[in-house]
Amino acid sequence: MKRLVVVLAAGQGTRMKSPRAKVLHPLMGRPMLVHLLEALAAVKADKTFVVVGHQAEEVESLLLPYEAVPIRQTPQLGTGHALVVCRQAIEAEGLAEILLVAGDVPLLPVGDLVSRWDAFSAQEAHAAVFTLHLPNPFGYGRIVKDAAETLSRIVEERDASPAERQVREVNSGVYFFRSPEVFSLLEQVGSNNAQGEFYLTDIFKILHGRGAPAATYEASPPERWLGINTQAELARTTRLLRMDILKRLMAAGVTILDPESTWIEPTADLEPGVTLHPFVRLCGASRLEADCEVRSFSCLYDTRLGAGTHVRESCVLEGTVTGKECSLGPFCHTRPGTVLEDRVHLGNFVETKKSRLGRGVKANHLTYLGDATVGADSNIGAGTITCNYDGINKHLTVLGEGVFVGSDAQLVAPVTVGDGAYIGAGTTVTKDIPAGALAISRVSQRNIEGWVEKRKSRRVNEPTSQREKKEPEK
After folding, report:
1. Average pLDDT over every residue of 353-376
2. What is 2-224's CATH topology?
3. How far apart are CA 276 and CA 270, in angstroms?
């Protein structure tokens, strides 16, 4: 018998009060639906169907890497209707068992699901539901049992009586069903309820009436099974996932000085021996090799740091790759396409973009290197910029090895500087410089003796009316 997964991801999520469909809301850098699909891969189902509705195209764009099949639900008429729209696709698979789960449960403990699925396969029950015991069950469907403690029905919050609302055992929204029997049951479900929808949960009342009650499995710990319905619940789930990641990394040998202020997304990879100071963010596919240190308020996006690299305070590194033992910051910004070879030093207020800096290059402060290649052991003085954009196209600046660039130099691309060349402070380079040459373009200095005193004297002897005319308005 085949095992199929159905994920309900069609709802708008009105309680989120957001124009974004609920399952598209980001959780640690990725939509919550992506977290669930990755977890469900461990189930090894024969096929996964995802019911989509609101912002369907955007949701469908997430499914391809997981080989999940989208099925559109238009209009959205409840959870029962969501499963009905899958009927043709599911019955085409033949006899099957179905795991049905909402798309807003990104931390679902799939290991528990797999073991319970084996138990369900061995039972004769037509359906099963995972239940939670919550101290404050507001908003959840209540599990109502008969005198024999078997499931008689599930009643939604809006339809529950005052006595039923006191029940603390609730529906997790995760179920097992058998096909094609489940569709025969759904044919008997109506929409006579507070929301005018076809509730999937009405199946359980029908089964109890037939003397074939559904099985119940207790889900624990409950916080892993709770759906996300509000922004506050999204924040709660984010913290759970964030702390999971931090605990795993610390157990593996990463030093995190203040976990409460540290943000590491699940796609980041850190080797043992990395040290992170408070208020560090590691996002996307960032990778830090052994003995890297990142100080406070630095943010790394899709960045790879070679072993022993030191990132000082308040740096922003995007799409950057460094070699070993580089030193960056404080206050430096590396943009996508930056490649730093071993022992490169970028100091405060240095910006790079789409540039490759060779081994041992130093740019200590106040520098912009864009669309540039800088050879090994070159030194870039303060205030240097590559003028890489002519208003239409970007152009490349190439510096050879051992080049010395004086302060406040401008290199107007395209331009090439040969090995060992020197560029004088304040020079604007518009032509190639041969290897070993000195380039100077500034005006020669001329000192005018006594000029300051003469100027002061003129000002004192000038009539007030003329002096006022020369004064700028404030």
Report:
1. 98
2. Spore Coat Polysaccharide Biosynthesis Protein SpsA; Chain A (3.90.550)
3. 10
